[in-house]
Amino acid sequence: MDTKALVLLAPGFEEIEAVTVIDVLRRADVEVVVAGLEPGPIMGSHAISVSSDLGIEAVREADFDAVILPGGMPGAANLRDDPRVLELLGEFSTAGKLCAAICAAPIALEAAGILEGRRATSYPGFELPSASYVSEGVVEDGNLVTSRGVGTALEFALVLASRLATPETAALLRQRMLV
């Protein structure tokens, strides 16, 4: 595995969005590291607990090719309100690395100041004032990938697989998973 992706989990994350991305990227042979905003297992918005590989304090942008934020509430607000997350997002964006968020989590990208004039989407009701907002399922704009929510999680994950592995790998996964 040459490519390494970071998935940040905050208490109250949306489980389908997190686990779908982790699973699909691992199927694509992308190394996925799950970092929690607090120690120990992180509780999702539907009372499903997921273990993290490390705490956010151990994360270094230089070690990763992408950062991915699952949505869910209050998970997305917890990401947005954590200065460590905003600092990491700024570092990834400045380095030109892939920054991805789904559902309500693009509010953290907004708070980090990396959506200005960029095409982006989010869950309805979580519009992004600095972005050129569109209501498409998955939106790509350079190193930025955003998506609408649970119903778009598999497509979001496959787009990330295409970007972090290869388009051929993503196409093969799409075929094997009957998407």
Instruction: Identify the CATH homologous superfamily.
Output: Class I glutamine amidotransferase (GATase) domain
Helix count equals 6
- The backbone outline, from C-alpha atoms, is globular
Q: CATH architecture, please?
A: 3-Layer(aba) Sandwich
What oligomerization state is this entry in? Answer: single chain
H/E series, N to C? EHEEEEEHHEHEEEEHH
Give me the side-by-side strand order of the main sheet.
5-2-1-6-7-11-10
Strand content of the residues, in percent?
Answer: 15-25%
Q: What is the first-to-last residue Cα distance?
A: 24 Å
Mean pLDDT over the residues: 97
Return Rg in Å.
14 Å
Q: How many structural domains does the protein architecture include?
A: 1
Q: Which consecutive residue ranges, at least 5 long each, have pLDDT under 50?
A: none
Main sheet specs: 7 strands, mixed
Which fold name is given in CATH as the topology?
Answer: Rossmann fold
**Helix residue percentage:** 25-40%
Strand count = 11
Derived structural class: alpha/beta
Q: According to CATH, what is the class?
A: Alpha Beta
